[in-house]
């Protein structure tokens, strides 16, 4: 919509009236742009401030986690379960380490598969850690997979890690085919004894959720991740 308006100009002894057109639509658009810009800046400033505060908080939290003494103090407030290297002889990483990370795992559990990948990365970052597997299962029909992984550890002569990696990546989806490609005896006395030890510990501990992570028997706090242990020196908790 156009509105004509004018002004009187006086000069040199004469007056005249000049007409100027105003486009209210353009005026509205221009005003809206300025208003939106001001509101956007007004919202972004506190957001940027909060973001910087969040980064600072995250940095401080990571600094706390990197402090081994602080982390151990928090860990010791968690539930404790009796566990030692005799509980399960399925050990990865440094078997001579004084720091024992126990992973209560299920061979057919998808989160356990992802945890296995994270454990591999952890052991690459910190070679002073001993990781122990204790296997569980959804039901008795799947206990054969527990026995298989136990047997693979004792019988594959250093290739057990490769077997575990392939199992958790894709082998668990077709266990019969995987067993055929990587034959292992599951009826050996050593395998049965180890399997029974895992099963007895499960019943005694009362744990059922997998994966569950323990640091020298203490349950990892809910707000912590297994990656936080990469800072530890391996002197134990």
Q: How does this model look, in words?
A:
- About 50% of the residues lie in helices and about 15% in strands.
- By secondary structure, the protein is of the alpha+beta class.
- It has two domains: about 1-65; about 80-230, Glutaredoxin (3-Layer(aba) Sandwich), CATH 3.40.30.
- The strands form two sheets. The chain has a five-stranded mixed beta sheet, sandwiched between helices. It has a two-stranded antiparallel sheet with strand order 1-2.
- A hairpin with a 2-residue loop joins strand 6 and strand 7 (about 220).
- The protein is elongated, with a radius of gyration of 33 Å.
- The termini are far apart.
How far apart the termini lie comes to 79 Å
Provide the gyration radius in Å: 33 Å
Shape: elongated
Q: Roughly what percent helix?
A: 40-55%
Described by strand count, sense and barrel closure, the largest sheet is: 5 strands, mixed
Question: At the first level of CATH, what is the class of the largest domain?
Answer: Alpha Beta
- List the secondary-structure elements in sequence, H or E: EEHHEEHEHHHHEE
Strand fraction band? Answer: 15-25%
**What name does CATH use for the topology of the largest domain?**
Glutaredoxin
Index terms:
237 residues; alpha+beta; Glutaredoxin; 2 domains; 5-stranded mixed beta sheet; two-stranded antiparallel ribbon; 7 strands; disordered N terminus
Question: How does the SSE layout of this entry go?
Answer:
Layout: E1 2-11, E2 14-23, H1 24-66, H2 68-75, E3 91-93, E4 100-105, H3 110-125, E5 130-135, H4 143-155, H5 160-169, H6 175-181, H7 189-205, E6 212-215, E7 218-219
Parallel strand pairs: 4-5
Antiparallel strand pairs: 1-2, 3-5, 4-6, 6-7
């Amino acid at each position: 919509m156009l509105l004509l308006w004018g002004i009187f100009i006086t000069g040199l002894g004469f007056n005249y009236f000049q007409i100027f057109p105003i486009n209210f639509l353009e005026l509205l658009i221009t005003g809206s742009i300025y208003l939106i810009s001001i509101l956007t800046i007004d919202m972004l400033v506190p957001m940027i401030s909060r973001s910087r505060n969040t980064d600072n908080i995250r940095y401080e939290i990571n600094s706390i986690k990197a402090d081994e003494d602080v982390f151990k103090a928090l860990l010791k407030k968690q539930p404790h379960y009796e566990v030692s290297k005799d509980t399960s002889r399925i050990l990865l990483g440094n078997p001579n380490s004084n720091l024992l990370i126990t992973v209560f795992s299920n061979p057919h559990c998808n989160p356990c598969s992802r945890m296995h990948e994270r454990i591999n990365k952890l052991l690459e970052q910190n070679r002073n850690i001993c990781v122990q597997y204790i296997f569980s299962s959804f039901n008795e029909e799947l206990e054969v997979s527990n026995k298989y992984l136990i047997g693979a550890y004792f019988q594959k002569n250093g290739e057990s890690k490769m077997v575990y990696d392939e199992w958790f990546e894709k082998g668990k989806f077709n266990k019969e085919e995987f067993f055929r490609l990587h034959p292992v005896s599951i009826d050996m006395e050593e395998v049965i004894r180890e399997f029974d030890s895992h099963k007895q510990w499960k019943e005694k501990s009362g744990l059922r959720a997998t994966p569950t992570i323990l640091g020298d028997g203490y349950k990892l706090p809910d707000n912590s991740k297994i990656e936080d242990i990469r800072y530890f020196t391996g002197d134990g908790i």
